[in-house]
Specification:
single chain; 2 domains; 10-stranded antiparallel sheet; 34% strand
Length: 208
């Protein structure tokens, strides 16, 4: 973006809530990748772009994220942290309301299978609720078939978020690697733990 482009983007004397100049400019991901000399294949979920600003006033003073003062960082006339971290995320479309999943869990109690649902968590684009993360383990002992686990999808890396409606103390799993989502095969793999019953579970779900 050139100086003229920036000036044009920020000139807005008719802003409805302030008489001070204010504006918006957009930089596409394609522009950033081209400027950095990389490709989208070089990027992964969890990476982030750092955008750093420099402001030069009419006296020649330069402000940036390394020397900003409280007046410029959060003042009335000008407010900016001068650094914006933009994380890389991927659209998450693991399941729909009509999808049915066949789930199989393995743990110290053996192997269990059940039909489950996977639905998007309320107010989230990346969290998913599995209706029975144990895939029938608890149901085989007479407990409810609803033992929910909530998981986050970060560019096909699946990590534990927390329990949903469940009768057991489900907690983060004792594994370092994340679960996975393979849209080509419709296979979702998650890890979970029941602390009270000392169960470390792995559940593999396949979309029908």
């Amino acid at each position: 973006m050139t100086r003229a482009d920036f000036q044009k983007a920020t000139e807005n004397p008719n802003h409805p809530t302030t008489r001070y100049l204010r504006g918006t400019f957009r930089i596409s991901a394609a522009q950033v990748v081209q400027a950095l000399g990389v490709t989208f294949a070089d990027l992964a979920g969890g990476d982030a772009f750092e955008f750093r600003l420099r402001a030069t006033d009419r006296f020649g003073r330069v402000f940036s994220d390394t020397n900003r003062s409280p007046d410029v960082q959060g003042g009335f006339f000008y407010r900016s942290p001068f650094r914006y971290d933009v994380p890389i995320v991927c659209p998450s479309n693991i399941s729909t309301a009509d999808d049915v999943w066949d789930a199989t869990s393995t743990s110290r109690f053996g192997t269990f299978s059940a039909e489950v649902t996977v639905r998007r968590a309320p107010n989230s684009d990346f969290n998913w609720i599995i209706s029975d993360v144990s895939a029938g383990l608890y149901a085989s002992f007479g407990f409810s078939t609803t033992q929910e686990g909530i998981f986050n999808d970060l560019c096909r890396q699946i990590t534990w978020v927390g329990p949903g409606s469940t009768q057991f103390g489900l907690v983060p799993p004792n594994v370092e690697e994340p679960g996975t989502w393979d849209p080509d095969t419709g296979t979702l793999t998650v890890f979970w733990r029941d602390n009270g019953n000392n169960i470390d579970g792995t559940t593999v779900l396949v979309k029908r």
